[in-house]
Amino acid sequence: MLGRLVPPRTRPQWALFAAALFVVELLIATVWAHVPFVRADLGDYLVVILIYAAAKAVRPLPRTPLAIFVFALGVAVEISQALHLVDRLGLAHDSAAGIAIGTYADLSDIAMYAAGSATAWLLDGRKQPE
Q1: What residues contact 4, with CB distance under 8 A and at least 6 apart?
Q2: Contact 98/84 with Cβ under 8 angstroms?
Q3: Which is more confident, 24 or 97?
Q4: Is 4 inside a domain boundary?
Q5: How many domains does the chain have?
Q6: If we measure between CA atoms, which residue out of 19, 36, 83 comes closest to residue 28?
Q7: pLDDT attached to residue 59
Q8: Is the distance from CB of 51 to CB of 70 less than 8 angstroms?
Q9: 111 alpha-carbon distance from chain centroid
Q10: Higher per-residue confidence, 115 vs 96
Q11: Is the residue at 78 inside a domain?
Q12: Residue 65, Cβ neighbours under 10 Å: how many?
């Protein structure tokens, strides 16, 4: 009954949704790290939805500016990767900052960030089922 799922509306619901996505992201980084599509694409798609949900859990932000912001944040990460920011700052690739920033820029990541931002925006605008 996937069509009957209720989208998050309240801050606690957004927080629970963000927590669930965080667990999935941890699984992607550990258990499914060897699965190329999951690690490279699905993780990028879900991370912007996670950031969107976490922001909505903290504050009731308008959906369009928030979706644009999380997409721009993803693009900023890709730019930092293209500029080899991890190396320039002397961060270890396996440090928390090195993992968060990443090391390899890829245009497909930007497509995943766009798709994830759009999904979050659509989910946020979805009406409650009657």
Answers
A1: 129
A2: no
A3: 24
A4: no
A5: 1
A6: 36
A7: 94
A8: yes
A9: 12
A10: 115
A11: yes
A12: 9
Instruction: Give per-residue pLDDT as tens, 69-97.
Output: 999 999 998 998 888 877 787 776 666 66
Neighbours of 19 (CB within 10 A): 14
User: In this structure, what token pair is assigned to residue 121?
Assistant: 């925006």
Supply the pLDDT for residue 99: 63
Task: Give the Å distances, CA to CA, from 126 to 28, 48, 54, 119.
Answer: 27, 18, 18, 10
All residues at 6 or more sequence positions from 87 whose CB lies less than 8 Å from its CB, including other chains = 103
- In degrees and rounded to multiples of 5, residue 93 shows phi and psi of -65, -25
Question: Residue 29 sits in which domain range?
Answer: 10-125
Is position 1 within any domain?
no
Whether the pLDDT of residue 58 is over 60: the answer is yes
The pair of structure tokens assigned to 25 is 């992201």
CA atoms within 13 A on the CB side of 56: 31
Neighbours of 14 (CB within 10 A): 22
DSSP-assigned letters across all residues of 30-61: TTTTT-HHIIIIIHHHHHHHHHHHHHHHHS--
* Residue linked to tokens 């209720």: 6
28-51 residue pLDDT tens? 988 988 898 888 899 999 999 999
Locate 29 and state its tokens.
């980084």
